[in-house]
Amino acid sequence: MPQPDRPSSEYRTIGIMGGGTAGYLTALTLKAGRPELDVTVIESSRIPIIGVGEATTSEIVPYLHRILGFDVHEFYQEVQPTWKLGIRFVWGLPGDYSFNFPFDLPRPLESLVYEATCGTRACCRS
Question: Which domain holds residue 99?
Fold first, then answer.
């Protein structure tokens, strides 16, 4: 039965070509928004899992918990994630050059609060 705020659709089955983070997040997003769909992820058995860090940003955290509805505590217990805070680019200008790019804007006031709470920066490192 079509929902009143959505147009009727003939599509009931969706195939996603390729797995990995992109394929699985696409499948989960489709199921979250349209639970009536039959979603299948098709992966090649000949392409190995690369197993390197993903190019996700800090926006993945609210996406996983607010959009996809994963329980925060359960997710951390099961996955034990490491969140990237930025990327170091080792290229650009000629010579030995690199630069760091943070995913989020710096929060200078936040660091002042930590310093004020601890009294010194040294105690915050322990």
Answer: 86-126
